[in-house]
Amino acid sequence: MSKGMLSFWSADHFRISLFSNESWSINSDRIFFEITSSEPNSISERKSVGESISTGAWDSLTLEVKRSLNRVDFLIRPVPDPQQDSPVAVILDIEARFNKFLPLVKRWMLNQSVAVNRIAIGCGALLPATDVEDSYKKLKQFIKVIDIDASRFREMQFQVNLPIPSKSESPMVLNRITSWASIGFQSGTIGNIVDQGPAIASHFAVCNIDVSSDAARKIPISTSVLESLLSEVSSEVLGILDQGIS
Fold first, then answer.
1. Element (H, E) at 44
2. What ranges in the chain are assigned the alpha helix state H?
3. Pairing state between β 10-19 and 118-129
4. Nearest CA among 121, 123, 152, 120 for reference residue 136
5. Taking a C-beta distance cutoff of 8 angstroms, is the pair 76, 61 a contact?
6. Which residues contact 96 (CB under 8 A, 6 or more apart)?
């Protein structure tokens, strides 16, 4: 993977989801332990809808494992750090985190008994900008399917699905949904209004990504394909942050 633009992005979350036509009977806390070799900090269940959620620490981040009847989600979020120079908690070095967590999911996925028929990976990414216009100039570098006028555009929200054939298995299709926007935060000192310093504005170009195998597929994906497919979907997510869409 290129270390071009990818290294400048951070993330407020990333997610790996597995889908099946069968129901998972294993509880989320067991999945959490099998993934991390540690117990979760909290467990909650909604038995009426067959949902189990376990949350705990992984690699200085927060991991949430959510198991519903025919779906398992692995959601990674940052732990707020007062030393981090950002108005929102973010995951730095997205590629390294992906590459560290992906093998854990692969190992679990290949060793469990429920057949998987769909895979999805999502990510919420932020790219720092100096101001609103700069955020649109950055978006223009990545969105190559429309013409963005950085001097005029405001409050733009653009979403598109650009499907491609899967390299792992034919005729499987990968859906590549991306949503792009410009956002800003304002922060100031809390205290006596007389002593309060000026608000500090932070601007970002934002990209929310969801890359998934074909939702219409009902037959299980063979074990021999699953590992390469998960790597392929992950590469597509990282590639969008590195090269954009065209």
1. strand 42-46
2. 28-36, 94-111, 132-142, 223-243
3. antiparallel
4. 152
5. yes
6. none
Q: Report residue 174 as tokens.
A: 């990968």
**Sole residue written with tokens 């909650």:** 44
CA neighbor of 101 nearest in space, from 231, 244, 239, 3: 231
Radius of gyration in angstroms for the set of CA atoms belonging to the chain, rounded to a whole number: 20
DSSP letter assigned to residue 211? E
Asked if 209 contacts 195 with a C-beta cutoff of 8 angstroms, the reply is: no
Three-state DSSP at 8 gives: helix
**pLDDT tens per residue, range 170-221:** 899 999 999 999 988 765 443 444 444 445 578 899 999 999 999 888 899 9
Cβ(56)–Cβ(38) under 8 Å? Answer: yes
Query: In 10 A of CB 132, how many CB atoms?
Result: 17
Q: Supply angle C-alpha 43, 47, 48, rounded to 5.
A: 145
C-beta of residue 62 within 8 angstroms of C-beta of residue 88: no
User: Cα(209)–Cα(22) distance, rounded to whole angstroms?
Assistant: 26
Cβ atoms within 10 Å of 122's Cβ, excluding its own: 18
Convert the pLDDT of each residue in 2-23 to its tens digit. Answer: 457 899 999 999 999 999 999 9
Non-local CB neighbours of 192 within 8 Å, separated by 6+ positions: none
